[in-house]
Amino acid sequence: MYELYYNLYYNLLKSYDEETAREIFCQFQEFLVEVENEAIFEASRLKLDKNKSRLSYADALGYIISLQNNMKFLTGDKAFFNLENVEFVK
Length: 90
Description:
This protein is mainly α. 54% of the residues lie in helices and 7% in strands.
């Protein structure tokens, strides 16, 4: 679970100064969800699927969590192109 939080902050820090990255990260905290074992199981199956092998485990888990919580999965990763509930951003 902490890998997802780390990934979020790391990417914010790549785009913003440290103060702004921390502010944005803290705004996202209200949207953090518990990761259930079933999400880990499903994400692992998704990643093992030979057509989805390019997915990182963090992206696979994020995608499954978004499905379980009826949220759109925002990504620019083309590996998600034909999957349901995905919104592409650049």
